[in-house]
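Action item from last week, closing it out:
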Amino acid sequence: MTAYAYLRKSVARQDDPHNSAEAQEAAVRAMAARYGDTDGLVILSDWNVSGRLGRAKRAGYDTLWQAIETGTCSALYSYSMSRLARSVVELLRLFEACAERHIPVRLEADVIDTSTASGRMVAGILAQVAAFEADVHGERLRAALAAKSARGERIGTAPFYGDRDGEDTAAVLAAFREAGSFSGAAKLLNGRGIRPRGSRRGWWPSSVAVVVRRLDPTLPTFRPTKGVAAGGSDFTLARLLRCPTCATMLTGTRDRDGARVRYSCRLGTSLPHPRISVTESHILPAIREEVAHLRTPEQIETETGDDARRAALEARRLRVLDMYEAGLIDRPGRDRRLAAVTDAMQTLDARSVMLAVPAVDWDRPPKALNTALRALFERIDLDPATFQPRPDGYLWTVPEWRA
């Protein structure tokens, strides 16, 4: 059996001399010498790799795990727990695997030797501390990014589409407004020979969405993500009915004469199902009864002055930032005030979406009807015994739409 040492340094800590390759290797070699493991010591390393990554993305760490699992590792040396992993779950998994095979884990900076009871206890405590430090660092980073976003500053260094010569954002926005959907805009752009950046296959709906949402952040979020503006399916209840057995969305099919429509679970032939299909005419009356609860914009209490409120909130946000820059309030005070402004903004945005109630005309073709129904509902859950829609199974896109 052979003793192994593992060294690692991430990009974020390259300026720390205590974690340099030379310092780590000298420390583990000296520690291994104290325990008589100098001869044949195998040193594995991963440089410029985050400790949050698992073994699949750390070649040296994966080789270490293979030595532990095959029983060829007699002892494990490292500079500190943070060099082994930045995840409590991963550290404990490594310690447990070594404990099961009676492999001692010895760390120089943390002064840990898991061959002793006290060493195992300290290792568990310090693993929690290491995770806490990583979480605090993540919180600070997120707070800094939120502050930059609140100030209107750009986050990241990658250029937006339109920053380079030959990239026409006006054409993208015009195509979206002409087509009324991301997928339709992608087809128009590809047909007009307008190329996206870094793609040989042309525009995709998702790439159009990234550009359009940046140019027009007032777009409601629920419509494009559900494909409402792009048009529905030729089946009235497509992408709405969920199988009560396996939670798969049911697929619509028509008989040869086209007179009857059925919705079936595509996994029904491979997994045990009490029932796998339902006829549209059997469940449509219950769905029509639920849609009858839809409140129209006239039934929803309207308020005036939303534009004035939004302008006042924006002015308030700018005042908070000015107070912070002038040193009149500290960072927690700034964040608390900005959070209140953000909550008020979201309330106004949610209200504007709530008032955009889609119309449902049951005499329209299935494709148009499916468009309206998918705007109303996220999904409809069925009863496993009867395959009828459950009374509590209607997940409305905006709950306030239901009277």
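Closing note: The first strand starts at residue 2 and ends at 9.
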